[in-house]
Design goal:
globular, alpha/beta, binds 1,4-dihydronicotinamide adenine dinucleotide, Rossmann fold, 269 residues, 7 strands, binds D-galactaro-1,5-lactone, seven-stranded parallel β-sheet, 8 helices
């Protein structure tokens, strides 16, 4: 498909949205911003709730593609997750279909498969088609998003790359994150690949950097043209000295989802 120029970025006020506002314009994208929260210094940003169907129709009109980051990014009561992540994502897809937007990059999460046992040294990497094992209602909402994306491809020809993001922050801050870290630069590279690859239909990828301690298989992301440049290993010595190695006897370390499987952080944070 021709490289998209105008891209709607939902969740633009959030942590990842803020990082992507800084990095994606260098790829030539003209970003249209949307969030529930106003964005300082961005008077043109659309302040809207994903529940507002009319606002979403207007927001997606005329864009070439959408990067959908908006929603609850941690655990919350089911009713709240339902409204923001399940109905909100449904509303966005309906608006995209109605306005003829052909490509969406969807922020899924490692928590869609969070109860998958963490691979031990020597184990194979977790494949992209490993059975879903959400660790929270939050993770369950990401499973819904992936299935909604599949349905929109099969029924309506709307293409999606669902990115099961690991941990995208400026630096890894835990030993677990040495395995799942996605550097902001690599996130921008991955989103760019997801926006420009041909014939993605509905493709699910893991989103992380080329970490030495990687837990999952990046081949479906690489097939889109993604070439990660970062590796969390340069943070390993410091983090392991502070926190110790992952411990097989500690339930927080047993699964991909880490502490989301035991005491998930709650929204709002
Ligand atoms: P964040 O919590 O910092 O940002 C989410 C943004 O969505 C906020 O600005 C919030 O105001 C907005 N939002 C929430 N409900 C909304 C609604 N009903 N309507 C409109 N906007 C709404 O989260 P972060 O870290 O920036 O994550 C962005 C996306 O990526 C989320 O979907 C999250 O689940 C996903 N993700 C992020 C990871 C990370 O490491 N940062 C890892 C895995 C997935
Ligand atoms: C997520 O899905 C969260 O949105 C993010 O805040 C991190 O906690 C990340 O997963 C993680 O697993 O570290």
């Amino acid at each position: 498909m021709p490289a998209p120029r105008t891209v709607l970025l939902t969740g633009a006020a959030g942590g990842l949205g803020t990082l992507m506002r800084g990095l994606l314009p260098a790829y030539g994208y003209d970003l249209r911003l949307l969030d529930l929260a106003p964005i300082e210094g961005e008077p043109d940003a659309i302040t809207a709730d994903l529940a507002d169907k009319e606002a979403l129709r207007e927001a997606v009109r005329g864009v070439d593609a959408i990067i959908h980051l908006a929603g609850i990014s941690l655990e919350a009561p089911f009713e709240k997750i339902m409204r923001a992540n399940i109905e909100g994502t449904y509303n966005l897809y309906e608006a995209a279909r109605a306005e003829g937007v052909r490509r969406i990059v969807l922020a899924s999460s490692n928590h869609a498969v969070g109860f998958t046992p963490r691979p031990r040294p020597g184990d194979p990497l977790i494949p992209i088609d490993t059975p879903r094992r959400p660790d929270t209602y939050y993770g369950l909402s990401k499973c819904f998003g992936e299935d909604l994306a599949q349905l929109h491809w099969d029924l309506h020809g709307v293409e999606t790359v669902s990115v099961r993001i690991g941990s995208c922050f400026p630096e890894p801050t835990s030993v677990r994150m040495l395995s799942v870290w996605l550097s902001p630069g690599d996130c921008a590279r991955l989103f760019h690949a997801a926006l420009t690859a041909e014939d993605v239909r509905h493709t699910v990828v893991y989103g992380s950097s080329a970490n030495t301690r990687l837990w999952w298989d990046l081949s479906s992301a690489r097939a889109l043209g993604y070439e990660p440049r970062d590796d969390s290993e340069r943070y390993a010595e410091k983090l392991i000295a502070e926190q110790g190695e992952l411990d097989d006897a500690n339930l927080d370390h047993a699964y991909l989802g880490g502490h989301f499987t035991t005491h998930p952080p709650q929204w709002p944070h």
